[in-house]
Automatic annotation (TrEMBL):
Organism of this sequence: Stappia indica
Pfam family, one: Phytase-like
Keywords attached to this entry: Signal
UniProt xrefs under SUPFAM superfamilies: C-terminal (heme d1) domain of cytochrome cd1-nitrite reductase, YWTD domain
Protein name: Alkaline phosphatase
UniProt-listed InterPro entries: Haem_d1_sf (IPR011048), Mesenchyme-surface_protein (IPR052956), Phytase-like_dom (IPR027372), WD40/YVTN_repeat-like_dom_sf (IPR015943)
Entries under PANTHER family matching the protein: MESENCHYME-SPECIFIC CELL SURFACE GLYCOPROTEIN (PTHR46928)
Length: 723
């Protein structure tokens, strides 16, 4: 099958990003950091993770598996907007999946000592007492656990996973996986009547070594199981263990897809014969099932597919999901050579009269919501979440939806694993706040890492942003129309030298030059041969002039250079992010460059103190008689303390020559951004990096999503009102 998303999707993206105000939509109401649920006495920096998640029947309690910490966690969501830690139960092994029946949690636990000696059990935990009760030996390493709608049958996928470092992860690697069916009697699994279902000899790929990944059960107690690495799907009768049907998940051809990890968002490649290699699977009804085509070692078709239970392809999403991720700024360019947006998790929920499909992008950290129509699903909205969404649970009785985000980056960025909650109600989708359009060839204008913002001098609501070194092979100026919600990127102006993409740039600041072009500030890094410099470009992005920092500055440089630029008369003012070698403690430079006389100068700016990490500048913008400066710490989530907007009178910007005594300016606080960064129910992101005031006097701010690298990909773009 071949899919090329062109005009139809372009029109759909422009017309359906935000649901009509009368329609019910999901909005995020809370983000719960899993590390707040650590057992007493545990080191607060211990790695922890929320992987697979489920809920009690009344929807008041969430239960999640935590592999690195080796147990099951509980979250009280009686008040969904204010989730509370509700305890943790340690298990002797690695929990891989959880489900709930009545007052019991059923957890698959991996106890394997090696890949060649897999073992595991099904543990039963009493929710009220938190005591571990019955346990069933499963005879292998469990992955997914599912409970039938009637509560009388459990299915466990025994993956017996392969060693990815052995023979490049190629199959076969014995022992083979299988499926376990367990009757449930009086709310407990009947271990003695467990049935092992042999899945060998079915798939065309490594038939002797099936690796079951995910299971789900429909109302007729039919069990569907994906064999991800084998690119196969099997449907089993839950009562007898008889295989009702099995079929290859098949392949797709993809056109206009980003296939290179080259520091640019291109969407101009082709993939042929890509195996779907599905991960999660969910029944849509008694006859249809939907799979997320994450891929594994040879495939990944970047979307989802609806099959009949006999194997007929009823719908293939092609690039629809990946393009919607890209137009919201969530596309993970560093995964282009692998599986792109990487749809891994799935959930299906019946909300009122609608059946909704939730598709989780593991690497894009976004969730696509689609409405099941019985034919081609209808896109509803895209939801933001934490890093690496892994599991999801719909709670229709409370109009809630919850997602577990497994990545714990405590050692990298300080960001912790989260559980994210959403509520469905009539209204307008708060996110995304900014989207891009499709280009004339029907491909998304990809964006991310927006690190500087500038206003059009004469057109209210029109702004320009630059992307930083995350897309070093494609430096770009983005034109933004902020007149609607969400704001829209309407054009991408590539920064070029002699018509070719300019290299060795880390664009962090932009300002209109008043003559139809722009001045750009590039943060230098001498150890990577990136110069500290200013660049003047014309309206088409071609570099017309380069102004290197003078020797007096370079003699005291550090890698944390220009983070913003503005123009006052003939003089450019550059905000330097952090103190350089000659700066007194607690100060940083605002550097000036007179474009007429070519003279350099500077003043000193007083920095707030840092409780943890560092504090620096992210932007400088002129409005009226003041320049507005973003000052922030480098902390994220609950550790964030300082994300503020200050202003300095223009009259105080009297530069002194470099190398001598510099005057210290006074500042005035204008706005605390932390409430803005919490407004969509997420954790506080660290990089608020752009601010500008448009021609009507309205302020706008934007965050840098780090190119979706160790980041949840969110770009928050919002107005601060009249200044």
């Amino acid at each position: 099958m071949k899919f090329s998303v062109l005009g139809a999707l372009a029109a759909a993206l422009l017309g359906s990003t935000v649901a009509a105000s009368a329609d019910p939509v999901f909005n995020r109401v809370a983000s719960f950091p899993v590390n707040t649920n650590l057992p007493a006495g545990t080191d607060g920096k211990s790695e922890t993770s929320a992987e697979i998640i489920t809920a009690t029947a009344d929807g008041s309690m969430l239960v999640y598996s935590d592999s690195p910490l080796g147990g099951v966690g509980f979250i009280d969501i009686t008040d969904a907007a204010s989730p509370k830690p509700a305890g943790f139960v340690g298990l002797d092994g690695e929990p891989t999946s959880v489900t709930v029946l009545g007052g019991k949690v059923f957890a698959g636990v991996n106890t394997s000592t090696s890949y060649t000696a897999p073992s595991g059990r099904l543990a039963v935990i009493d929710i009220a007492s938190r005591e571990i009760g019955a346990s069933c030996d499963l005879g292998g390493q469990p992955d997914s656990v599912a409970l039938s709608p009637s509560g009388d049958l459990m299915a466990v996928a025994i993956e017996n996973e392969r060693d990815e470092d052995l023979n490049d992860g190629a199959l076969p690697q014995m022992p083979a996986g299988f499926l376990v069916l367990l009757p449930v009697v009086d709310g407990l699994p009947d271990c003695a009547k467990a049935r092992k279902v042999d899945l060998t000899g079915l798939a065309a790929i490594a038939p002797e070594d099936p690796e079951p990944e995910f299971v789900d059960i429909n109302a007729a107690n039919e069990v569907v199981v994906t064999l991800q690495e084998n690119n196969h799907i099997v449907v089993v009768d839950g009562a007898s263990g008889e295989i009702l049907s099995h079929f290859s998940a098949g392949t797709v051809d993809l056109e206009n897809v980003d296939v290179e990890e080259e520091g640019a968002l291109t969407f101009d490649g082709t993939l042929t014969g890509v195996a779907r290699e599905p991960d999660a699977v969910q029944w849509l009804d008694g006859e249809r099932l939907v799979v997320a085509n994450e891929g594994d070692y040879e495939g990944g078709s970047r979307g989802f597919t609806i099959f009949s239970k006999s194997g007929e392809v009823l719908h293939e999403s092609g690039l629809d999901f990946e393009y919607r991720v890209a137009t919201a700024g969530h596309y993970p360019e560093k995964r282009s050579g692998n599986k792109g947006a990487e749809p891994e998790g799935l959930e299906v929920g019946r909300f009122g009269e609608e059946t909704l499909i939730f598709v989780l992008s593991e690497r894009g950290s976004a969730i696509g919501v689609y409405r099941d129509t019985g034919a081609a699903p209808e896109f509803v909205q895209l939801l933001p979440t934490g890093v690496a969404p892994e599991g999801a649970v719909a709670i229709p009785g409370r109009n809630l939806f919850a997602v577990s985000n497994e990545a714990d980056l405590v050692e990298e960025t300080g960001l912790r694993s989260h559980v994210t909650l959403y509520e469905r109600a009539e209204g307008v989708a708060a996110y995304p706040m900014i989207v891009s359009r499709m280009d004339d060839a029907g491909r998304p204008i990809g964006f991310g890492a927006l690190s500087g913002l500038a206003a059009d001098p004469s057109a209210p609501g029109i702004l320009y942003a630059v992307s930083d070194s995350a897309y070093g092979m494609q430096p770009t100026i983005f034109r933004i129309d902020a007149s609607g919600h969400p704001a829209r990127i309407t054009d991408a102006i590539r920064v070029t030298r002699a018509g070719q993409p300019a290299q060795l740039l880390d664009l962090e600041g932009i300002v209109a030059d008043g003559k139809g072009g722009f001045w750009l500030a590039s943060e230098g890094r001498s150890d990577k041969l990136v110069p500290h410099a200013l660049y003047r470009v014309d309206g088409k992005g071609e570099i017309k002039a380069q102004v290197a920092f003078p020797p007096e500055l370079l003699a005291v440089e550090t890698r944390f250079g220009a983070e913003g630029v503005t123009l006052i008369g003939d003089t450019l003012w550059i905000a330097i992010q952090r103190p350089w070698k000659d700066d007194p403690k607690g100060t940083v430079k605002l550097v000036s460059y007179n474009t007429a006389t070519k003279e350099w100068g500077a003043v000193r700016y007083p920095l707030e103190g840092a409780e943890t990490g560092w504090v620096g500048l992210s932007e400088i913008a002129l409005h009226g008689e003041h320049v507005y400066i973003i000052e922030r710490d480098n902390q994220i989530g609950d550790n964030a303390r300082l994300k503020k907007l200050y202003r300095v009178p223009v009259s105080a910007l009297v530069p002194a020559p470099l190398g001598g005594e510099l005057p210290l300016v006074a500042k005035e606080e204008v706005r605390d951004f932390i409430p803005d960064l919490k407004a969509t129910g997420g954790y506080v992101v660290d990089k608020i990096e752009g601010f500008a005031v448009d021609a009507s006097g309205t302020g706008y701010a934007v965050t840098d999503n780090d190119g979706v690298d160790d980041s949840n990909g969110e770009t928050l773009f919002f107005s601060t009102g009249k200044m």
